Amino acid sequence: MKDKFLALLIMIVISYTKNDKVIEYAPFFEFFKQNNIILDTIDKAAAKWEYGFKFKSLVDQKIKKVGIFLPAVGSFEVRIYDINLNKILLDTTITTTVRLKEFYINIPEIAIPKNGIFGLTVKADSFIKLKDNRNIDFVFPRTVGSIDILSFNEMNCNINLCNSFPSFNNTQIIAPCVNAYFEVYK
Fold it and tell me: Residues of the chain with pLDDT > 70: what percent?
């Protein structure tokens, strides 16, 4: 009896494991694939900015990697904010020696619960600006993978010391230079 129970338990675990599929996606660089985009590369700006995206999670998921795509080399601060709690969940530095190439680092796993509102930003004096060549605004919210991207936000760190999630919402020009790999179980 004991052996039959153990065999049944093993079959259930194997069946459950086989049906669990991990989906990874990195949503914020999708803006580069949009039609009608004009790119403007700023190698060195006059001021440091904190900029990135506010998003809502549509399912329970997690972030295990963050990355940047910038036209400069150096060390750049990346943050993940829990907007609802007004709390910084991650404050890390990414150092890259390669221009205009995606560069990711592993981070301690961060749980991103369903319906939570979060922010992902980079502090940099370098960026790639995107603008629609038809002179129309970027439309938010925008669903990519299992998140709704709610807005692009930015703040000049020389004016406001960038101690909180950027308050200025920009829909005409965005800089999708920071990204994260999300993991979802399907």
Answer: 89
Number of domains in the chain: 1
Residue 104 covered by a domain:
yes
CA angle 103, 129, 70 (to 5 degrees): 20
Domain span at residue 161? 21-185
Is the residue at 15 inside a domain? no
Return the residue matching tokens 């619960």. Answer: 113
Contact in structure between 91 and 75 (CB atoms under 8 Å): no
Per-residue confidence (pLDDT) for residue 186, from 0 to 100: 74
**Integer Cα distance of 38 and 135 in angstroms:** 10
Q: How far apart (Å, rounded) are the C-alpha atoms in residues 78 and 122?
A: 4
Helix, strand, coil % (nearest 5) of the chain? 15, 50, 35
- Tell me if the pTM is above 0.85: yes
Q: Characterize the bridge pairing of strands 117-124 and 74-82.
A: antiparallel
Condensed to tens digits (0 to 9), the pLDDT of residues 12-67 reads: 444 444 457 889 999 999 999 999 999 999 999 999 999 999 999 999 999 999 99
How much is the CA Rg of the chain, to the nearest whole Å?
Answer: 19
3-state secondary structure of 63: strand
For 114, the enclosing helix (H) or strand (E) is: none
